[in-house]
């Protein structure tokens, strides 16, 4: 049997396939029930209603089944709420390399106006504007760079 934590941490986000759920901070914990040996995974959605969460749950169960844990349980917790601060440094770098602008860290639990912080992932210019609230998926918004005219996806932040 493979280490269940390693198996789950390798699951990629179904919408942003360059990063794992571990790097995005969606994965909270992987525990093994001492009595039953059953694996219990806890995840927190990036934002309420993100349709990708159903896919993520299925992918986690599939990864654990392949690792020898077919009866795993996936729990979803909403508190504390996921924040962009939970994206790892490595995750941010991968998002930037894929042309997805990582959301700016939210400080003090309050929502910072992201319009001031979105930089073009292509040229780095802060001269960007939101084109549409919905990008290629429900979890992303479509933005455009005013410097190089490049459209890009920006992860929605809470
Ligand atoms: Zn640009």
UniProtKB/TrEMBL annotation:
<dbReference type="Pfam" id="PF23451">
    <property type="entry name" value="Zn_ribbon_PaaD"/>
</dbReference>
<dbReference type="InterPro" id="IPR002744">
    <property type="entry name" value="MIP18-like"/>
</dbReference>
<dbReference type="InterPro" id="IPR056572">
    <property type="entry name" value="Zn_ribbon_PaaD"/>
</dbReference>
<feature type="domain" description="MIP18 family-like">
    <location>
        <begin position="5"/>
        <end position="73"/>
    </location>
</feature>
<protein>
    <submittedName>
        <fullName>Ring-1,2-phenylacetyl-CoA epoxidase subunit PaaD</fullName>
    </submittedName>
</protein>
<dbReference type="InterPro" id="IPR011883">
    <property type="entry name" value="PaaD-like"/>
</dbReference>
<dbReference type="InterPro" id="IPR052339">
    <property type="entry name" value="Fe-S_Maturation_MIP18"/>
</dbReference>
<feature type="domain" description="PaaD zinc beta ribbon">
    <location>
        <begin position="116"/>
        <end position="156"/>
    </location>
</feature>
<dbReference type="InterPro" id="IPR034904">
    <property type="entry name" value="FSCA_dom_sf"/>
</dbReference>
<dbReference type="Pfam" id="PF01883">
    <property type="entry name" value="FeS_assembly_P"/>
</dbReference>
